Amino acid sequence: MTPTELYEMLKKVQEPKGFFFNRDKDWALTILNDLLVNKKRYGYTSCPCRLATGDRDKDRDIFCPCAYRQEDVKEYGSCYCNLYVSREWNEGKIEHRYVPEKRPPEKISF
């Protein structure tokens, strides 16, 4: 699968749920490419903006879309890596702010 194919597939699934890809399509395709790299590397699509352990169970919370996406998009208009955003974020109706890491420290250190 190519990043573009993944983009088209996920767009159909995620937009009805209120999650849109970043309007910077090059950025979105870069992140999607990195997800595909992680899929080959680990066997699952871990968020490329976070360090994966390679242990499927330990990394389950960072399978894209990660467990933090919904709250991040609700609070900031964007997920941690700016792949998924709200419509308002894409339209410039809300400020583009830094999204802090919400993954618990015990999951980050390994």
Give the rounded overall mean pLDDT: 95
**Per DSSP, what share of the residues sits in E-state strands of 2 or more residues?**
under 5%
Residue share in helix: 40-55%
Got a strand count?
2
Separation of the first and last Cα atoms: 31 Å
- Principal-axis shape equals globular
Q: How many helices in DSSP terms?
A: 6
**Helix-strand pattern, N to C?**
HEHHHEHH
Biggest sheet overview: 2 strands, antiparallel
Strand order within the widest sheet? Answer: 1-2
> Helix/strand-derived class?
mainly alpha
Q: What is the radius of gyration?
A: 14 Å
Low-confidence regions: none
Oligomeric state of the chains? single chain
What does this entry show, briefly?
The chain is mainly alpha-helical and 110 residues long. It has 6 helices and 2 strands.
What can you tell me about this protein's structure?
45% of the residues lie in helices and 4% in strands. The protein is mainly alpha-helical. The protein has a two-stranded antiparallel sheet. Helix 1 packs across helix 2. The radius of gyration is 14 Å and the shape is globular. The protein starts with a helix and ends with a helix. The mean pLDDT is 95.
List the keywords.
single chain; 110 residues; mainly alpha; two-stranded antiparallel ribbon; 6 helices; 45% helix; 4% strand
Task: List the SSEs and their pairings.
Blueprint: H1 3-14, E1 20-21, H2 25-42, H3 56-59, H4 69-76, E2 84-85, H5 87-90, H6 105-108
